[in-house]
Amino acid sequence: MRANYRRWLIPIVILIAGVVWVVLPTNPGINIGAFHHSIRVVRGLDLQGGLRVLLEADVPAAQEVTGEQLTTARSIIENRVNGLGVSEPLIQIAGNRRILVELPGVGDPEQAVSAIKETGLLEFVDPGTTNQAEVIALEGQVITTDFGKAQSSEPVTTPEGSTTPEAVQPTLEGTAPATTASATPTSEAGLGPTPPTVFHTVMTGAVLKTAGVNTDQTGVPYVAFELTSEGSALFGDYTRTHVGEYLAIVLDKRVISAPRIQEPITTGTGSITGSFTVAEANALAVQLRYGALPIPLQVVESKSVGPTLGQDSLRKSTVAGIVGLTVIILFMALYYRLPGVVADLALLVYALTTFALFKLIPVTLTLPGIAGFVLSIGVAVDANILIFERMKEELRNRRTLVQAIDLGFSRAWPSIRDSNLSTLITCLILYWFGSTFGASIVKGFALTLAIGVGVSLFTAITVTRTFLHVILDGLGVGKHARWFGV
Question: Both 391 and 262 in a single domain?
Fold first, then answer.
């Protein structure tokens, strides 16, 4: 055995020890000072059950939805679903008008769907009255405004009888819990329901920059907010002419609060005061801060995967992986004899290393992801087959074992390099496709396959070669030709 392979053996042994520690289900994770990183298997929706929801921009087909709007909406939705306590949610843009939300391990799908549906339009609305009792009666009610999808080219009538053109464009929305009360007015003459009152939207959540909770000198909490430059101008103009009147804050067409305008707000910053508890002030601030989506969204598809089905999928995929690995190990040992056994040892190192990376990154394992991992085992074996066939050719040409091993690796390397490079390029294309069009199953498959291919290159070229020299150097091929299948 040559000295350079002795030097490789020590790092490989250390690597194997570390990999085994990571793979153990009882490992405590990485805890170094203030750094903490849990090491666990992250299972996807199809392996542990949960909820998949597809959201679509709720705007006319002719209206353009920009990538920036979708990116902002995705970030805000992520903040909202994180409040549900869901572990490893997946929120990604799907195409040019949709957002895919996957919530693994959701115990109450109805609650999750409700929370996602609440990611609606945030509006600041003129309630059309200065009567405090009427304003209070509006809180919690669903109202109709002159903003959003219901707009038409015709003017709509506000409570004061003024008209508002269609020029208002949807820009920002929000999500928040709300009660579910509404009323349908009826005519006094008993002639059936009258058309609903249409309230005027002064501005939308697009002009809201931030919102948070502060306390005054007496410790009473209030909600402080800041507007964009555009919002400052709009709000300043409106509040100057409506001092002493009310402004309703409407989320998903439901009134969540209706504070009175105490003074003109021209600086772009203001506050909402009242008899809030800290929890109520925080809830309102969250509704304002994370309830400001740049486009209205609607749920177009909702699919629930039960935990029983997920567990069954996990069991079957685990069995499939074990069967596939066992068959490959037996084939290599029976066909390539002693080198095949050495390759099997390297293959076990490959499988453990890849699985350890899945836990460390972490990679969300799904059924397609496991399929990519199983396929990468075949890729790893393919590299060993190329090497061993070249080794056998060199041995038949009367080379020594050391020469045959080195020549087998060097002459098989171009084929291994080119085949794996083409696979990695394909994985990159598939990953881009999955990210662009929201095909998470394609994305998971591409990611696990790419990681597997990368690890297989290391194990085939480094680990297998080192093991071969450690175990086989010094053996007489002439005396043990059958051990090498020659």
Answer: no
| Tokens of residue 207, six digits | 């002009």
Cross-strand bridge partners of residue 56: 98, 298
Among 287, 302, 317, the domain-final residue is: 302
Q: Please, which residues bridge with residue 198 across strands?
A: 144
The predicted pLDDT at position 60 comes to 87
**Structural domain that includes position 418:** 3-39+306-484
| pLDDT tens, residue by residue, 205-220 | 778 888 888 888 888 8
Distances (CA, A) of 216 to 67, 286, 461: 40, 19, 68
Query: In this model, does residue 253 exceed pLDDT 50?
Result: yes
In this structure, the answer to whether residues 248 and 354 fall within a common structural domain is no
Please, which residues bridge with residue 210 across strands? Answer: 226
Last residue of a domain, one of 275, 302, 329: 302
Percent of the chain that is helix, strand, coil (3-state, to 5): 50, 20, 30
Residue 359's contacts (CB-CB under 8 Å, 6 or more residues apart) are 22, 23, 39, 40, 41
**Domain shared by 165 and 245, yes or no:** yes
Q: Identify whether 237 is part of a domain.
A: yes
- Does residue 146 share a domain with residue 134? yes
Backbone angles phi and psi of 352, in degrees to 5: -65, -40
DSSP string, 429-450: HHHHHHHHHT-HHHHHHHHHHH
* 357-359-362-368 Cα dihedral, nearest 10 degrees: 80
Domain count across the chain: 2
Q: Which range among 81-90, 146-155, 256-265, 422-431 shows the weakest confidence by mean pLDDT? A: 146-155
pTM, entire model: 0.62
Q: CB neighbours (10 Å) of residue 257?
A: 20
The rounded distance, in Å, linking the Cα atoms of 8 and 194 is 84
Q: How far is CA 190 from the centre of its chain?
A: 53
pLDDT, one tens digit per residue, over 288-306 is 766 666 777 888 888 887 7
Lowest model confidence (mean pLDDT) among 72-86, 151-165, 193-207, 388-402? 151-165
pLDDT at position 178 over 70: no
| Structure tokens, 218 | 């007496």
